[in-house]
């Protein structure tokens, strides 16, 4: 009898812990991406995988509709000219036709087609990524980071999306695989402000 009661108490404790760590409720509505607190990052293997190299894009904009998962959506636009590798010469090369071709293709975009999130705020987001004029379906892992009020009382929400693409799928084959690996890991940190 004591074991049964102890097991029941332990199970109740685990259930309460799960509820305590569930994702914070997010008020439904339309949110605007806060560019100052959002970012798009990439990581690629350098010299065929000798090391890992990271960079980011500094100009990101977009909108989120937060609702039930089947009604939620996001669209993000990133200016390719805002690439930042922390090295001026490399940035110039990355903006060239060898890579992002920022003059001909000044933006890359992601538009969601399906969002799936569980009670803990973890799931996936599928959609279309357009890069260098090529559009491909991609799926990212999605995690709700948090929700709450900003310094002026405005409602805010945060998400992180991660995934891997092949740059050759988007016509970016320069230096594969000797200079840099084909696979590129992406991470998009989004903080949205309710409109």
TrEMBL record:
The species this protein was found in: Ramlibacter montanisoli
Protein name: Polyisoprenoid-binding protein
Pfam families in the record: YceI
Signal in keyword set: yes
UniProt-listed SMART domains: YceI (SM00867)
Top-level taxon: Bacteria
InterPro entries named in the record: Lipid/polyisoprenoid-bd_YceI (IPR007372), TTHA0802/YceI-like_sf (IPR036761)
Signal sequence, start to end: 1-22
All copies of domain Lipid/polyisoprenoid-binding YceI-like, residue ranges: 30-193
Gene3D superfamilies registered for this protein in UniProt: Lipid/polyisoprenoid-binding, YceI-like
Keywords associated with the record: Signal
């Amino acid at each position: 009898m004591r074991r049964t009661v102890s097991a029941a108490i332990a199970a109740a404790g685990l259930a309460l812990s799960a509820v305590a760590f569930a994702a914070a409720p997010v008020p439904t509505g339309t949110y605007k991406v806060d560019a100052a607190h959002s970012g798009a990052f990439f990581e690629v293997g350098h010299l065929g995988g000798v090391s890992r190299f990271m960079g980011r894009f500094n100009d990101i904009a977009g909108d989120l509709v937060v609702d039930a998962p089947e009604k939620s959506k996001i669209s993000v636009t990133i200016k390719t000219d805002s690439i930042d590798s922390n090295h001026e010469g490399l940035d110039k090369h990355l903006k060239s036709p060898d890579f992002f071709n920022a003059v001909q293709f000044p933006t890359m975009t992601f538009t969601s087609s399906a969002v799936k999130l569980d009670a803990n705020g973890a799931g996936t987001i599928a959609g279309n990524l357009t890069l260098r004029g090529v559009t491909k379906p991609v799926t990212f892992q999605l995690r709700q980071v948090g929700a709450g009020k900003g310094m002026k009382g405005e409602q805010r929400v945060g998400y992180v999306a991660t995934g891997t693409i092949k740059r050759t799928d988007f016509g970016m084959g320069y230096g594969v695989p000797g200079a840099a690996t084909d696979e590129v890991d992406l991470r998009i940190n989004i903080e949205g402000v309710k409109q």
